[in-house]
Amino acid sequence: MKQFLKYTLATIVGIIIATLLFVLISFAVIGAIAGSNESATVLKPNSVYQLNLEGTLIDRSKDDPLSGAFAQMVGKTSDNTIGLDDVLSNIVKAKNDPNIVGIYLKGGSLAGGIASIKEIRNALIDFKKTGKFIVAYADNYSQRMYYLVSVADKVLLNPQGMLELKGLSAQTPFFKKTLDKLGIEMQIVRVGTFKSAIEPLINTKMSDANRLQVNVYINSIWNTMLKDISASRKIPFEKLNQYADEMMMFQPTEKTKQYALVDSLVYIEQVDSILKQCDKKLKKGENLVFVKHSAMTRVADTAKFDKNKVAVIYAVGEITDADGEGIVSKDLVKTINDVAKDTQIKAVVFRISSPGGSAYGSEQICHALKLLKAKKPVVVSMGDYAASGGYYIACMADKIVAQPNTITGSIGIFGVIPNISGLNEKLGISYDGVKTNKMSDAISVTRKFTPEERDLMQNYVNRGYELFVKRCAEGRKMKVEQIKAIAEGRVWTGEDALKLGLVDRIGGLNDAIRLAVEKAKLANYNISEYPEKEDFTTKFMKNFSKDIETRFMKSQLGDQYNLFQQVKNLETLNGIQARLPYDLIIR
Q: Hey, which of 263-277, 315-329, 573-587 has the most confident mean pLDDT?
């Protein structure tokens, strides 16, 4: 009876907690839906676009007003995301609208890829051509955010704040010892001396080839950052390297002004008067009107309707063959085919931000793009990554546009089959069975490869590599031997890829759109984005349980969530892969 009462009470408590959680989430959903139906923003004279540099920068904005509500429920800060597409669009609106007099960049800890940050930086440089001002203020600037705000007319820092300037480092987590303890051997077949994606599974440190390529491309990225900062702040390149060696964030704050890294050391209360001084047309007694990012996205697009369209197709995340997050190959192929059939679409920009993934999925997407290119111009815009499978799906385009600090190349593939015999032995599990043919039980995860099986797998991977190289040669109008000379899985920056003929131009998404318009010979057009964004309600109802689980894990694990996700994703690495190093962290 005692046990019965205990379990009955536990069940009742569980039901009560689940009911309360459902009610709270329901209220959050209702509030989120209500909040998402806000009216269009009408800009007033003397308006300033205020962009808060907080949260995480992603390629494409998501309708996700629930994040703040859920974070509050578990006692954490909101996992806010900002879409690069919205930021670029808002900067153009601010540039063209006479009511906007300037941009205020507030805060300095937005997390995002270096190429995406450069894309915003370039848009701000274009904005400055109007003569309107840009002012930045933060209590602390991360290194990437300082790179972004260094373009501002005035860079302001809290007198007790920090400015991070220390150079870049790159780290990869290695799992071999963990796998050894579990009794799991990752059996690898690959093509490419530099194809280092599998190293975390079989090594405990970087190979010499991988160390060489990473050293080359992080120095290329760092040099691009310093050249840009040097041009904006009028500080010699060599001086910036000296300041970085001093580890600026732990130097007295006064040094940041002494070195001309910032213009003034002020508290937040003083920023308003500085902004007013920047608006030369502001009359005495008038105040500035601050328009936050969310409100700016609701400013009406003044572009006139035109039946001619330029499609921007987004391919963001890992390439997979199964349903889930990232680039699901069959879904993207359907989107590409739908765009090909639409007679109003005259040109296509294929926006890629992907480290690669399934080689099979990459080939299906590449084939669909080849058919699309036969009907209308296709221009690729590379984001932070377009490497390995990400380059595979890019190579067929008429033209490829990349940022100088885009990570690309990595033309190579590998196969991974785990051998869990050691784990089974630890658990006391054994196998026995029968078979009809010699290879009926081939490529089993319960034992090591036989020499014959390894040869079969290696030949399969070799054929996949030859096909990858052939596609690149065909798309880039180069000889197979030329591609192989720069392939071998080696990773390049966009700047180096331009010299090697892997990309055609340096630039961002808007540059790719202009190039596509030029190739289609369009005078007037409208932009249409694909696949269409799901509204919040639809997405929430489709992914309710998964979404809640993800949010909960992020809230509890914090910075360790990415490591948890890497370990969890090891189970999906079966088969032939065309992807970057499993997780290269650039700081």
A: 263-277
